[in-house]
Amino acid sequence: MNLRGLVSVTGKPGLFKLVGQNKGGFILESLDNAKVKTVINLSNTKMATLEDITIYGEEEEIRLLDIFETLKAGELEVPSAKADGNTLREFFRQAAPGHDESRVYSSDIKKVISWYAIIKELPLFDEETPEPISE
């Protein structure tokens, strides 16, 4: 799964692809059908790559990519992001065993489900992650 360059922006729904950088900030393209390009400035907006996002765990943090790999295996039925809290929590106990239930909220689970729905349709989802560039 090659999700390098995919980011989440605080305060903006959905996911974005990092397409460039200019004097004003980073140029992002939405992953929806509209393909809207936006420039964000990191001085007033926070951005996180999907590779760097983790979920609170009881013992150690759980990488978002590991959760996506579990979902990609297809053994779990992914509920709608609009499902009730109990359904979401039961699903997440299987998708991310060992997550800290007191610090991972239903809104977090909904976000993971909605992001998964976006990325599973992308060609990047089935690509291998490129090796980091060593100097």
From TrEMBL:
Pfam families: DUF5606, DUF6852. Residues 3-50 form the DUF5606 domain. InterPro entries: BVU_3817-like_C_sf (IPR049281), BVU_3817_N_sf (IPR049282), DUF5606 (IPR041218), DUF6852 (IPR049280). Residues 53-119 form the DUF6852 domain. This is DUF5606 domain-containing protein. The lineage of its organism: Bacteria, Pseudomonadati, Bacteroidota, Sphingobacteriia, Sphingobacteriales.
